[in-house]
Fold this protein.
Amino acid sequence: MISPKQPLAARGISADAGMRPSRALRYHLRFQIMPGENVERDAQALAVFCTAHGVEEVVLFYAGEEWHNGLLSSNEEDLWFDVVGRAKQILEAAGIVVSLNPWATVGHLDRGRRLPPKRGLQPAVSPAGEVASAVGSFADPAWRNYIEDQFGRFAQLGFRIIWVEDDFRYHNHAPLTWGSGFEPPVLEQFAARVGQNVSREEVLNAILQPGEPHPWRAVWLSTWRELQLQSAAGIATAVADNAPGQTRLGLMSSTPSVHSAEGRDWLALFAALSIDGQVAHRPNFADYGAAPRRDRARSIMMLEMQRHLRPAGCEVAPEIENAPWTQWNKSNTATWADMVLAMLFGADALLLNLFPMVGNPPRHHPDVGRLLDDSRSVLEWICERFPVSLPSCGVSLPWTQDAAQKIHTVRGESMDELNVSPFMPGQFLLPYGVPVTSSQGSPRALFGRLAWAFTDAEIDEMLYGGLFLDAQSADILAQRGFGEQIGVRVAQWIDREQDCYSMEQVVADETGLEPGLLLSTVNWLPRIAALEPLSGADEWTSIITPTRERRGAGVVTFENDRGGRVVTMAVADPARQPRYQQHQTMIQNAVRFLMGNELSAALVTGSPYLLPVHFTEGTRNVVIIFNDAVDPGRPVVRLPNVLDEPPQATLLAPLSDPIPAAVQTGEAGGETTVILECEMPYMAYLVLEW
């Protein structure tokens, strides 16, 4: 049997001789040891497991999930302090680094738990006025004292990192509607800022006011932001004052768009949590469970986007999660795919939550060790070939962290209306083989109400390059006075029961399709926009009824007087459309049009749901393709330059060693075509390097 700690070469796997390994594979295992008489026994068993499977660091939970009885009473805190302290000594004696993961700050959700009665903590209040039973408030001085004292006390044990859990937020505190943050002390601080007494209802009506944002919205989000920053700074001070050595804090985070609805300032929050200039980040990026389905487009965009939200030098350990733990919830293959993707995006470590949190010793779950061992060869191969995170290219997804402050609401009834995602274009383009990036550049794709979030100057700058719009964003830009520059007007919105629009008909050769071809891309949609091209615009497709009556253009292309190119679709959120091979051809040609008909990033065809990522730095290029379809895939890749020799191709199949892959290449029109000769299994990656 070959040890998992042996280098790749010992297992017959070669890395490029010119590559200098600059990062090691680091498994950081989150684990909870239950209180009771077996703490030492279980800690020793955990140490044996870690040594056997190459886990260099354990991140100890305390009072987590099933062992969570709400925010801790004084006696419960004493109990867990003892458990964690004894376990830490045993693990460190075995040569294992130890970090800490307190399960709760304000508290995740109620689940029948209660706030500890003797702590005097004020409960969270939702936008609807519901009162939590187990969730605290950022504005409560008693909670601040509680959390600072607890973090400071545990810091005395000397951990490498103490993680601030993802309950450090306002949203998502079930059973509260939307979340928290409407407690009386918050309203009092807000009232002081606006200079008048306010009720919860008045604040909610103002910040959700349909149309132009009410001035109070910015003040309210600023109030939330300052409360959170003050809390973060208090925790950091408590840890710094009590921790021996170099203990630092790490931030766990979830979807950036919903954090925008909390007023989060990412760099300011990381700065508040920093100790001696150091901080860590655990980005969420993948579902906690997985069934055979297509869900990796969001994972790619989450990893890509969060690279731009944290400070340089921040340690990054993405969350590899399976909750509630069981292979019926998430397969080893799906977990492997998460780990590979995280490492391809330059992770410093993998924060593994693979065991049930009830605290059973590792021997009850032998498959976890097999998963770690079977994944090692591919992950080490990635570490050796990709020592740092590389910049990406493709269609840019514009984003601003204060989007929730600027967008217009429609109904004005829910805090969810402040959550506008930059991922809508990527959900459409990635499954069609078009890479996306969060780096700023051209072309860009701007869908939905996010079009309200940018200044006129920012929109003006976008219109000098390539810009992909859905119908809603086009309608918004026209309302803002940019209609002449996008080349279309929305004559009206047509609801599904109002009219029998049913098909999209190709009318232009530029689509790459035969004129007259019919596509069933609109029949299932709840509404469409009746688009009318302006002078100089080209109609690529038309929306028609069963009697062939035209209901407007389906896809319009336009080159404005600034030389900028715009593509507009007649549907809102095009990812909801049924997908077809012919539709992929047209959309890729639309992207080519936006690029000036010269590729600036790879395009992938050949099979459905082949998701590409294109990394490029200097003369080095890496294209990664993930097969997100259950059927085997055989990608055909168009590269934006002519190669002197075929790219190096490596197939990363689930839970297997990396293997060289044979490819065919051809040249046409200044581009190189690469065709994989074998098939890619489900959840496999193909890596092309040149």
About this structure: The domain at 393-594 is CATH 3.40.50 (Rossmann fold). The mean pLDDT is 95. The longest strand covers residues 550-559. Residues 215-242 form the longest helix (28 residues).
